[in-house]
Specification:
The chain has a domain at 54-112 and 149-274. The strands form 2 sheets. Strands 1, 2, 5, 6, 7, 8 and 9 form a 7-stranded antiparallel β-sheet that branches. The chain has a two-stranded antiparallel sheet with strand order 3-4. With 277 residues, it is α+β, with helices and mostly antiparallel strands. Strand 6 (168-184) and strand 7 (187-193) form a beta hairpin. The protein is built from 6 helices and 9 strands. 19% of the residues are buried.
């Protein structure tokens, strides 16, 4: 059982020790260590021969939606969890740049150095250089300060799979990418993935990071829990197709939402039809 500081129950005056405290006081009446020491629950084993159906979809989570506020809480932002792990070398970031072998840029083919990760979010600024006499002798370009509140969307790549061995139709998240606004030649090109995180690798990090909710401080939920339990609101932006097209490549306006609902309904109909005959 975890121990905490015992309150003074005899109303006596306890002298303050002049020696400095050797450890930080417990912030509360019990030590919350369950999540910090949590282990990942592995997926059920999946054989290629048991996969009767597979469909890959890409969806986006907007942290400004009410259901997704937990992902943007200042106490435990998702982007902070990811960035801290990447900068500490605990998690790999993969470049999202399109290549000939990887047109979508999401196949986890190229590792992104930690030093280049921060530059994906911070705008470049020109800093003047001065000599010892205070005279400007030139300038250099450096990355500006990163603002975590600027990241409001995350893209998820996942596979929907029917496992005939277990008779289960389920989604499995493959990767997560924070979205960043792209500008070129003064034009806004929309949001693109800054880099990709391999979700099975990130689960070991997410399982030890508690989420903060509005109604209860003792939810016991970690980031791994809310992803595995699908506790988020999202919309589909792409499905696997021979031309590797996104919805926005061939639709505009509200038609993108209709496409998202179409794919969502097709997945639901497939599951329904599995048990209808």
């Amino acid at each position: 059982m975890a121990s905490a500081q015992k309150p003074n129950q005899n109303n006596s005056i306890t002298p303050i020790s002049e020696e400095p405290a050797t450890e930080r006081p417990v912030d509360g009446y019990y030590k919350r260590s369950n999540i910090e020491n949590a282990k990942v629950t592995p997926y059920a084993n999946l054989r290629d021969a048991d996969v009767m159906f597979s469909k890959r979809v890409w969806r986006e989570i907007d942290t400004r939606e009410r259901m997704n506020h937990v992902y943007a809480s200042p106490k435990s932002r998702l982007i902070d969890v990811i960035m801290d792990a990447v900068m500490a070398g605990e998690l790999n970031a993969y470049d999202a740049v399109s290549t000939k072998s990887d047109p979508s840029g999401d196949a986890f083919g190229t590792l992104l150095p930690a030093g280049n990760v921060m530059a994906k979010f911070a705008d470049s600024v020109v800093i003047p250089d001065f000599n010892d006499n205070g005279e400007q002798i030139g300038s250099h370009v450096a990355s500006g300060e990163f603002n975590p509140d600027s990241v409001t969307r995350f893209q998820i790549k996942e596979d929907w799979i029917f496992d005939k061995q277990r008779s289960v139709f389920e989604p499995r998240i493959i990767g997560i990418a924070p979205m960043v606004k792209i500008k070129a030649a003064g034009q806004d090109l929309g949001e693109q993935p800054a880099f990709w995180i391999y979700f099975p690798e990130a689960r070991h990090i997410f399982a030890t990071k508690a989420v903060s909710t509005k109604n209860n401080d003792a939810t016991g939920l970690s980031y791994d829990d809310i992803f595995m339990k699908r506790l988020f609101s999202s919309y589909i932006v792409k499905e696997s197709n021979p031309d590797d097209l996104r919805f926005k490549d061939y639709t505009i306006g509200i038609d993108r939402l209709y496409e998202s609902e179409r794919v969502k309904k097709e997945l639901m109909d497939y599951e329904h039809d599995l048990w209808s005959y």
